[in-house]
Amino acid sequence: MDEAARGEGGGARIPRWVYPVFFVSGFAALIYQVAWQRALFTVVGINVETVTLVVSAFMLGLGVGSLAGGALSRDPGRAALAWFGGVEVGIGAFGAASLPLIEAVGRACVGLPDAASGALVFGLILVPTTLMGATRPLLVAHAVRADRNVGRAVGALYGVNTLGSAAASVATALVLLAKLGLAGSVHVAVAANLLVGGTALVLWRRARS
Length: 209
What we know:
Blueprint: H1 3-9, H2 18-44, H3 48-73, H4 80-109, H5 114-146, H6 150-208
Helix pairs in contact: 1-5, 1-6, 2-3, 2-4, 2-5, 2-6, 3-5, 4-5, 4-6, 5-6
């Protein structure tokens, strides 16, 4: 039986592939945060209210997604790995369309009251961040089914995910935006999501066969 199968079946340890997968997932999420903030600032302006709105949408989306992912992962009959893979692919699909969507929202905001413009921006960011928030509890659930030491599983994965986010913050600020621009940076994040999601789905299918 391979490592993916042991993961869903409750084997003895966390599969090794989980760590790079969660690292790359966190890496992609931070690229989006930086890139989308910059894109939104170009269409709605930079001020205290805009920064607060964008950060609040990110935080709320991550929180709501975490609750939703946790609810899904509590059912042992659900394949947490398959759900994780599907959510990552969904984030990548949104990411591929995100910059044109942000431009469209910017055009729609012209002439609208500030409250209506804020609601449009808030709603746009809330969709992908909710998906991002769901990835953590889903993959953690998969790891916990492999390693019954919950503290070790959760601590290790959140640490790896945080390292991925930290690496992305440095890489995005110093390399990606400078070399690839806004669109190129987003494309890197999209490719990372699709790679992670596709890998998870392939491993899930292999474990079932």
